[in-house]
Amino acid sequence: MKTSVLPNNSVKMIGRYRAARQQTLALCEPLTPEDMMVQSCPEASPSKWHLAHTAWFFESFVLREFLSGYRLFDPDYPWLFNSYYRSFAAFPEKRLRASFSRPGLEVVLSYRKHVDGAVERLLSHDPDPEAVRRIELGIQHEEQHQELLLTDILHAFSTNPLRPAYLPGGLEAAPRGPGTEIPIPPLAFVEYPGGMYETGYAGDGFCYDNELPRHRIWLEKFALANRLVTCAEYAAFIADGGYNRPELWLSAGWDAIQEHNWRAPLYWSGSDDRRTVFTLRGELPLSRVKDTPVSHISFFEADAYARWAGCRLATELEWEVAAEKHPIQGNLLHTERLLPAPLASSDPSSVAKQSTPDHPGNGAAPAPAEIAQLFGDCWEWTSSAYLGYPGFKAPEGALGEYNGKFMSGQMVLRGGSCVTPSEHIRSSYRNFFAPETRWQFSGIRLAVV
C-alpha cells in the first residue's frame, strides 16, 4: 500500500485549521440549543449562526473556487449565512438571525463537518497558494467569531431574568481574583519620546489589509498610563456626577447618554455600595471586581472619563509604538484555560515605581513605571477614527469588503481582550466599532502630553 506524505506546511495548516474549528465548538459546550438561538441586540448574532457562518466563509471563498468537484452542502446556504458581502450574494437582515430556527443545530453541525472534510482534502493535495492564503484568512475569521460568540452570549444572558452564568465559579477561578493581598499598581505614566516612527504590520506572517502598508509617522512626545482604568476609578467618575456634566462629553456622546439613559457601564446594576456587575461567570458585587479594568463602555464614555481625569485617550499609533516591542502576553483567551473576564493588573514591577496622586488630573508630573495590560483584558478605545493608512487599497472582489467598506463612522480599539484568542492578536491589529458600542469588552487607558 502506497502512503502519501504531506508537505510540512500542509500538515501544519491542517493542524491549525482543526484547532481553530474545535475551539469554536468547545466554546459552545456550556450552551443549550435554546441558548444558541438567542439574539438579544441587533449588533449580536445567535451562537448557532456563528457556527454556520464560519463554515460558510470557507465554503464560499475557498472550496467553491479551489476544490474541483466540490458540491454545496445546501444551495440556500450561500445567501442564508452571508453576513455583509453584498458583491457575493443577497442576505437576510441581520436583526432577524434569531428567527432562523431552521436549519436545526444538528444540521448546522453536519454542515461544519462537510466543510471540514472538504478543506482537509484540499490541503492534502498540493493546494493553490491563494487557497492556502484564504484558509489562513478563514481561520483568522473564525477566531474573530469566537470572540464575538462570547460577547454575544454574555449580552444574551444579561437579558435573561434568571441571569444565568456561562461558566460557574465566579472570579475565584482566576489566577488573580478578588480578595488577593497584592495591591494593583498605582496609576502612573510611561513616557515616550517624540520623533519619526514606522507603524503598520511588519513581518512575513498573516495580517489584515487594514494593517498595511507599513508607513512612517511623526509623533510628538506622549505618555501612556501603566495600566487600564479600574472599576473603582470609574465608580468615582460616576459619583462625581460624570454622567450629569455636559462639559465632559462630546456632543454626540451627550446625546447618546440622554437617549439611552446611560448612567453606568453596560452590565452594572444598582447603585453605590450595592452595585453589581454581570459577567460570564454570573452576577458579582462591584466590590469583588473593583480592581479589575472597567469594561463594556462606549468610546463616548471612555473619552468623557479621560477628560474628567485631566487626560486624554491615546491615538492608535501612539498605542502601537508603545506596544510594538512588548511580547504578546496577557489575559487573552487561551485554549488550555478559560477565564473570560478582565483581571486586575498583576505587574509587581510598577508597584514600587509609583506615583501619581489619586486623581491624575491635578498637574503632577508623570512618574516612571512599567506598562502592563497592553494585550488582553479589555480592548482599549483610542481617539483615532478608523481610516485607511496612506496607500491603503482594499483587495478586489467580495473579500475586499472585509474591512475597507467600514472606514466611516468607526473608532479604533487596540490590544485585544480577555475573549480574544491568544494566537489572533498583535501590536498592529486594528479593531473598530461605532463610538456608541458597549457590548464588547472595551475599556480605557489614559494618555497625557
Question: Could you please describe the fold and organization of this structure?
Answer:
This protein is an alpha+beta fold and 449 residues long. The chain has two domains: 8-158, Four Helix Bundle (Hemerythrin (Met), subunit A), CATH 1.20.120; 170-448, paralog of FGE (formylglycine-generating enzyme). 29% of the residues lie in helices and 12% in strands. The strands form five sheets. A four-stranded antiparallel β-sheet has the order 1-4-15-8. Strands 13-12-11-14 form a four-stranded mixed β-sheet. Helix 1 (8-28) packs parallel to helix 5 (129-158), helix 2 (47-66) runs antiparallel to helix 5 and helix 7 crosses helix 8. The protein starts with 7 loop residues before the first helix and ends with a strand.
What's the number of helices? Answer: 9
Task: Extract low-pLDDT stretches.
Answer: 1-5, 174-180, 347-369
**Which geometry do the CA atoms define?**
globular
Structural class, judged by helices and strands? alpha+beta
**In the CATH scheme, what's the topology name of the largest domain?**
paralog of FGE (formylglycine-generating enzyme)
Distance between the termini: 71 Å
For the biggest sheet, the summary is: 4 strands, antiparallel
**Helix fraction?**
25-40%
The arrangement of helices and strands along the chain is: HHHHHEEEEHHEEEHEHEEEEEEE
CATH architecture verdict of the largest domain: Alpha-Beta Complex
The CATH homologous superfamily of the largest domain is termed paralog of FGE (formylglycine-generating enzyme)
Instruction: Count every beta strand, where a strand is a DSSP E run of 2 or more residues.
Output: 15
